[in-house]
Amino acid sequence: KAKRAAELVIANIEKAKRAAELVIANKELVLAKEKAKLVADLIIVNKELTHQIEKRKQTELALKESNEKYLQAFQSSPYSITISRLEDAGYIEVNDAFTSIFGFTREEAITNSTIGLDIWVNIEDRKWVTSTLLDGRNVSGKEFLFKKKNGEIITGLFATRFISVNKEPYIISSI
Prior knowledge:
- The protein is of the alpha+beta class.
- It contains 4 helices and 5 strands; from the N terminus they run αββαααβββ.
- It has helices at 2-76, 96-102, 106-110, 123-134, and strands spanning 81-85, 91-94, 139-147, 153-165, 168-174.
- It is rod-shaped, with a radius of gyration of 38 Å.
- The chain starts with a helix and ends with a strand.
């Protein structure tokens, strides 16, 4: 009887061992399925991110091309074109025609303003333009007298309007 009891104990131990192995195998299967789902999810996220990166690259390329077109048009215009800050009339950009017409270097202009360069013969004209812009109207095709760096007075056909750069108001003008 002791032998039979020992055999039953061993059989129960073997049965318990197989049951434990089945539990472990089941847990490993569940973990493998979870891992496979995570991998599948990561593949989907990776594809989505790759797509977004490609779209961003295309957008950046289109923006670069647009900026190049703007820069070429801005710089090659035979008209003096300037962009200045509203609050102090300081230039942030001038084109080559501005430097050619007025005789100031780009650096002189960028480190100064319309007031500092003293290009307006009649300061009241400048005040009128500023007031007109602040009233929400653009100025287009208006003749004013301007002073070049060498003191020569010229008549210019003037146009200006507000533009937004980084959500800040600026003034773009052409003569």
